[in-house]
Write a structure and sequence with these properties.
The complex is a heterodimer of chains A (259) and B (467). Chain A has nine helices and six strands. Chain A has 259 residues and is α+β, with helices and mostly antiparallel strands. Classes of the chains: A alpha+beta (259), B mainly alpha (467).
Chain lengths: 259, 467
């Protein structure tokens, strides 16, 4: 009986380990976003500049106040001079002038609000939202079959045109038809490489850095308190660690007489 | 009623005040009965910390909840925005919100462990049946509380999770559609649903929950705690004092112990709150950072992790599974008739019940039975005190193979939990089906298996070595 149960036990273990590994098979794999940009004020500020210049025309960030940019080292004057339109105040949230109804007509979908976009796009087993955005902004390519003339590897059939195309230049994607090793009847439409068609205002490396800065900003904007959260957390854990030592000794002092 | 007391002459103001109060309210008596003279077994082990921790989390949830309610707007047009307002503009709002959202998961972690402790040491056995029943009531309230609370952030997962679960009620025969309409207050989850869930979440369910917690503790202190040996400490008392030899006063021994445990717990809890508040997408689901959109169904809707074992059982109940249930009912009836040793009247009764059960299984569709299975998986816990027929309480003195059985139960429960968080797959579904059968088999066959095997002798006194 005992043996039977043990073998049953082991069998269950095997059965479980043979389960399909992850929910997110397929799709273009995401690159790792360089996390160190999150503590780099210059990167975050540059990201804020790119964001207000390129993204905020169509997208809003309606939960984000301009003056929260104080947290990344900008003062009211800098915000007013560089980032605001004429009628806005620093205490306002980042609204867009684009009419969502018109946007829906033009693009087929209203551009989503970007306040918490980096938090919402993470996937268990695939990567963080920042990883996704970092990949998305580096995988646009020309596709004449699409209404906007643009397509994307991380988000196939994306409704948004390549808003940073002037910086990156136009590229086209080269695909290859690869025979499936296990099933000769099946061929896979596999991405091979990008080809630069027209040069952009930035070199490839500059563009990569700029996108990194933009994504760092989006990630920060998703939770502006994240810096202080981590800073305070260290203090809290140090305090609790100390408390554990004291309460542990207090407990031992009481219990040493219990026989 | 107690005699009217007078403080001795020359007593200090403190003692006079206490005497004054004690003559009008049993303050000293309550303190003695529940703390300084409540004798708890001295051989408690790590499994006995989770009841206290559950109380701590409950207090934390209520306090953080009060502050969240000051800023949250239960309005479909403003709910999502108000949560972001709390996260950004309310001073320390992010901390309060993360404590509350992490607290929900922490609550289930400590409660599952607390229940498992009761399971392995037989803490639900006579005379603690009511302690267990109140506890099961608390678990039910907690599930209701968590489910309705999860709608409030008004994200995609909030919305569609609620939509899926409320729709389940429409599978109930005859009254189903009206029932789900009554719960939602609308034809789809909407503003009306949000408002009533808010009302239930912040006042109705917490009131019941607090009442049940009080009843749980009063019942426990009436009968006294069980312990890892399953020995009644009240059976061995000091002849002179009449106090249990293996018990020690809750205060100060377990108060200092629980303060230490609370510090350790808060360390782990804070590590999550400050460094991983999303819990890897399991405590705060990523999709929930997108505002609810009734026109856009997410590709994959998964409930929060603490509901996934039951959700798996719901998904496991396919048409095929209903046939398996029919076969099981038939087999059980045949066995009962042939081997049960009942009189002929009872045998006929069993046969009739079995035929009716099979007919009902055939009549209603699998979706309904899935809902029944999901509900039964929770309700069956209430019957545990009467399902367990083992001559000993604690797993320590049970046959070794019982331990493997408990391990098997745990493994399948965890597997069901994992599978419930994943999109459906054919292989996963088979394992869920086996898991569902193991889960119910464990409980329903308990009257039979818990009696067999060679049990070890239970000692007179608890096993304890000073530390």
């Amino acid at each position: 009986m005992k043996k039977l149960l043990i073998s049953l036990f082991v069998a269950c273990g095997f059965a479980l380990s043979a389960l399909p590994a992850a929910a997110n098979e397929g799709g273009y794999p995401w690159d790792k976003f360089p996390e160190e940009k999150m503590t780099d004020m210059a990167s975050l500020q540059n990201g804020a500049r790119i964001f207000t210049n390129y993204c905020l025309n169509c997208h809003s960030a309606q939960y984000m106040r301009y003056n929260r940019l104080h947290d990344i080292g900008l003062n009211d004057d800098q915000i007013k001079k560089n980032l605001l339109f004429a009628t806005e105040k620093v205490g306002d949230t980042m609204k867009t002038t684009l009419d969502p109804k018109q946007a829906k007509e033009w693009f087929g979908a209203a551009p989503p609000d970007l306040s918490v976009i980096a938090r919402s796009r993470a996937e268990v087993g695939k990567g963080s939202g920042a990883d996704y955005l970092y990949t998305l902004w580096r995988t646009f390519y020309r596709d004449d079959a699409k209404p906007t003339g643009w397509n994307n590897l991380a988000f196939p059939d994306i409704a948004m045109p390549h808003a940073l195309w002037e910086l990156q230049g136009e590229r086209r994607a080269v695909f290859a038809e690869v025979k499936d090793a296990h099933n000769p009847a099946k061929t896979e439409h596999r991405f091979e490489r990008f080809e630069q068609v027209t040069p952009g205002a930035m070199s490839e490396l500059e563009y990569k850095e700029a996108v990194g800065d933009l994504v760092a900003y989006l990630q920060w904007m998703g939770e502006p308190a994240q810096g202080s959260r981590i800073r305070i957390g260290v203090g809290v854990l140090l305090f609790l660690g100390l408390l554990i030592v004291f309460t542990w000794r207090l407990n031992a002092a009481y219990w040493k007489n219990v026989t | 009623m107690a005699e009217f007391q007078t403080a001795p002459t020359g007593a200090g103001t403190g003692q006079k005040l206490l005497t004054w109060i004690d003559n009008r309210f049993p303050l000293s008596k309550l303190y003695q009965d529940h703390l300084s003279e409540y004798y708890a077994p001295k051989n408690f082990n790590i499994w006995y910390v989770f009841g206290g921790l559950a109380t701590l989390v409950l207090v934390m949830q209520i306090l953080t909840g009060i502050f969240l309610t000051m800023h949250y707007k239960p309005d479909a047009a403003k709910a999502f925005e108000s949560v972001e307002y709390i996260m950004r503009d309310v001073p320390w709002g992010w901390l309060v919100r993360y404590m509350h959202s992490t607290g929900a998961s922490a609550f289930f972690i400590v409660v599952y462990l607390h229940m498992f402790r009761g399971l392995i040491y037989g803490s639900y056995r006579k005379p603690r049946e009511l302690v267990w029943l109140f506890g099961c009531g608390i678990f039910l309230c907690l599930m209701a509380e968590a489910f309705m609370g999860y709608l409030l952030p008004w994200g995609q997962m909030s919305y569609w999770g609620a939509q899926v679960i409320v729709n389940l009620f429409s599978a109930v025969p005859f009254i189903g559609p009206d029932l789900s309409l009554l719960i939602r207050g609308d034809y789809v989850v909407g503003d009306a649903t949000l408002n009533r869930f808010f009302s239930f979440h912040v006042i109705a369910v917490p009131l019941v929950l607090l009442g049940l917690v009080a009843a749980h503790i009063i019942a426990l202190h009436e009968v006294g705690s069980n312990n890892p040996d399953g020995v009644e400490i009240k059976a061995t008392k000091n002849e002179k004092t009449g106090l249990p030899l293996d018990g020690i006063p809750f205060h100060p021994y377990f108060t200092v112990h629980d303060i230490y445990v609370a510090a350790v717990f808060l360390f782990i809890f804070s590590a999550v709150v400050f460094f991983a508040p999303e819990g890897g997408g399991y405590f705060l689901e990523f999709n929930n950072f997108i505002e609810a959109n009734p026109l856009k169904t997410p590709a994959h809707i998964a409930p929060v992790w603490y509901f996934t074992p039951y959700y798996s059982m719901l998904r496991a109940t396919t048409d095929l599974m209903v046939y398996v249930f029919m076969a099981v009912v038939g087999l059980a009836a045949v066995l009962a008739i042939l081997r049960g040793g009942f009189g002929s009247a009872v045998k006929i009764g069993i046969a009739v019940v079995a035929v009716v059960a099979v007919a009902l299984l055939k009549t209603f569709d699998a979706k309904f039975w899935g809902v029944v299975v999901m509900g039964a998986a929770v309700i069956i816990l209430f019957f545990l005190p009467w399902l367990d027929r083992s001559p000993v309480k604690s797993i320590r003195y049970r046959p070794d193979w019982h331990k493997y059985l408990y391990a098997l139960f745990v493994i399948f429960f965890l597997a069901l939990g994992y599978l419930g968080s994943q999109p459906p797959s054919a292989g996963g579904n088979y394992i869920s089906q086996i898991g569902t059968l193991v889960y119910f088999g464990f409980f329903l066959l308990m009257p039979w298996w818990s009696r067999i095997g060679t049990f070890k002798p239970v000692p007179e006194r608890v096993t304890f070595s000073a530390h």
